[in-house]
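Can anyone check this?
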Amino acid sequence: MTSMKEQIFASRILVVDDNAANVELLEMMLNLAGYDNVQVTTDSRQVKPMFLEEPFDLILLDIRMPYLDGFQVMEQLAEIVENDYVPILVLTAQKDMETRLRALELGARDFVTKPFDRTEVLNRIENMLEVRCLYNERTNSAKILEHKVMERTQELHHTRLEIIRRLGRAGEYRDNETGMHIIRMSKSSQRLALAAGLAEAHAEMVLNASPMHDVGKIGIPDRILLKPGKLDKDEWEIMKTHPQIGADIIGNDGANLMKMASAIALTHHEKWDGTGYPNGLKGEEIPIEGRISSICDVFDALTSERPYKKAWPVEKAIGLIKEETGKQFDPKLVPLFLEILPDVMEISQEYTDDAESFLHTLEKGKVSGTDN
């Protein structure tokens, strides 16, 4: 591990003075003291491009210079340096308070009055570089910590997505639907969310949350869930509990993704006219994610073949969705769904229900549509 002394003497130092003799003296003095990374210039116009090429840890800056004076140089540096600490040691023969105050306002950290004392200058330089090195260490530690936090956050996000994917699959295993259904409906839901004007991040959350829409079917008895014929009244009442069961399974996790997954599970069977279940929500009382998922879920279910039914032709499914506009479905979302229908059909063709396609997708980790 590099010691503080080693860091200090390895620091990049720039000497700026229009007097060549002063520059040579300071460079020699610094080299003899052990600083081996010193650059000099007598042209103040070169400071900005030199700093942009590789920032310096300390700048020894004269005030009275042609072209650009020290104040103008500091103003240029202030424009290009953001959220950083750059020590500037001002070299000046001016002793008036106005000069010192202006230099401090523009970023100067210390002053050396010409003619300067060698010991004093070297001590001030070392002290300033020690502060700079400590600042760099703190900044680097903060960046490392930020990177670790980001990694853990991404890991947590991935874990949540994996939970959603697996629970979504669990719900489908209990039913007569395939894993491809949740991919198709979630990807279609994402497209519809974008068409409805939701931000990309919001639409992506719909993509990742909607696969859990039917997870509550885990709690429905097989005699009802897998019944080949029509459900009787009592059986239907039990079936209608699966949205609430799904919301209960997902729980009250504070993460936005899990909140949305819970909302979709709970509301994707609500209807625009208030006749849906489990809570009879009406219109915009239903979260937009639930309204979006409802259309995409129904369309894919209608146009997919199941052991208990044949797949509907697309035209027939669209006819039903149009007929249910303002009843089951949001009247503003249906026209948008019709606009993105080519995208929906492309998704359907890409993610078919055949076993080979499903296994291929499973191997690539695309079961919940999280590959977007």
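Reply from J.R.: I decoded it. The mean pLDDT is 85.
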